[in-house]
C-alpha cells in the first residue's frame, strides 16, 4: 500500500544536523501520523508520498522548509508559572511554554526567581535538517481518524 492522502503511516526516524544526532525514535515507539492532514512537516510528507512499508529514505530540509529561519529578537521574559517543564531550569535547556495557542518550545536563556528569559525560536530554527526515515507500516485511516484529522493508537493520538 502506497503512502497517500488519508493513509496512516507508521515510521521510525533519526534526525541529524551536520552529522550530529538531534533525536531518534529507534529506541522507542514508532511515530504514527495521518498523511495529508498537516500532522508532519510538508517536506517530509512530500518525500514520503508513494513510499511503502519497508522503504527507507533520506529527506533533507532547508530551514525555510522545516522550522524557519531563526529570528533575531530580544529575549522574552515570562512568569515562571507559564513554564510547563517541571524540575530545575538551567540555561540552554529546552522547555515548553504555555501560550494561548498551546505549548511552544523555547530555549532558556536566564532563570530568575519569578521569571525566565527565553528564546522562542523553535530549537531547530535556522538549521538544515536531515531525516533518515524507515517506513514500518501503511494502512487505511478509519473514518474516525479522518474526522479527527490525526492517527489514533501507539505513536499517534490516544483518546481516553
The coarse silhouette is: globular
Determine the N-to-C terminus distance: 30 Å
Count of distinct strands = 9
- Secondary-structure element string: EEEHEEEEEEH
User: What is the strand content?
Assistant: 35-45%
Structural class: mainly beta
* Oligomer kind: single chain
Describe the protein's architecture and organization:
By secondary structure, the protein is mainly β. It contains 2 helices and 9 strands, in the order βββαββββββα. Strands 1, 2, 3, 4 and 9 form a 5-stranded antiparallel beta sheet that branches. Strand 7 and strand 8 form a beta hairpin. It is globular, with a radius of gyration of 18 Å.
Protein traits:
160 residues; mainly beta; five-stranded antiparallel sheet; 2 helices; 9 strands
List the helices and strands and how they pair.
Elements: E1 7-17, E2 20-24, E3 31-34, H1 42-48, E4 56-61, E5 76-79, E6 94-99, E7 102-111, E8 115-119, E9 129-140, H2 143-148
Antiparallel strand pairs: 1-2, 1-3, 1-9, 4-9, 5-8, 6-7, 7-8
Give the gist of this structure.
By secondary structure, the protein is mostly beta strands.
